[in-house]
Amino acid sequence: MPPSDTTSSSDPLSSAPVAPPLRPKLRRSTLRTVAALILREMATRYGAKPGGYAWAIFEPLGTLFILSLAFSLLLRSPSLGESFILFYATGYLPFNLFNGTAGMLTAAIAFSKSLLKYPAVGWIDALLARFILNALTLLLISYVLLVAILWFTGTRTVIDMPPVIGAFVMAMALGFGIGTFNCAMRGLFPVYGTVWTMLTRPLLIVSAVLYIMEDLPNGAQQVLWYNPLAHITGLARTGFYPVYNPDYINPAYVMAWALIPMAMGLLLLRKHHLAILNR
Fold first, then answer.
1. What confidence score (pLDDT) does residue 181 get?
2. How many degrees, rounded to 5, is the angle at CA 259 between CA 94 and CA 37?
3. For the whole model, what pTM was predicted?
């Protein structure tokens, strides 16, 4: 006698609907992928140019030299201290860290667009690779230039490191936040990059790089307070000039400017990165 069928239609379990397969988890960025993108970025940006990293040092050094020479002909002394080049370096270098980081992240997806078509490379890898390389490069350049300026000018000052470190950390965070948001917006609306460039051309002038906030009238100070970069440059200078103690610096305000655009940019890229890549 044949065995009875244990999977008859009367069994309630046999008629239960089959659960759909679980969606695979989002791939996490690996150190190997990020490291490979960093090496590719280094070879493309610095390896293809004569001089390589030397130009990365000479460019901000040339800017500081021109600023110092020009304003030394117009002014008797800078707003703080006696060295023009040190005064402008303490404001320009953290500003340059933000500006360079934001600019590199804005073009991160466009730069690695061909590689992002491979499953092993994700859009977050492109962002992290550019951020890590650019931040480390500009931090090293800032350190070399500040040490060289202090040595050549013979300036003797007791540097308060916590404000300096805090200013550079906030500059990196702000650059990452704004750059991530700009990366998403540029991918969704290509004209956004042109508009952003036009709007931010006077950013060097309105970020308290060429002066200190106290040099301005009260009305101008109240307007420029809303520029987070003015807080960063002011904080950086407190570490080099013990007599300078501004009361307008608000690190929480700067970090809000960094974290809110970063969150918005990451959400937009997570939702629309495929549409951006297919443009």
1. 97
2. 70
3. 0.85
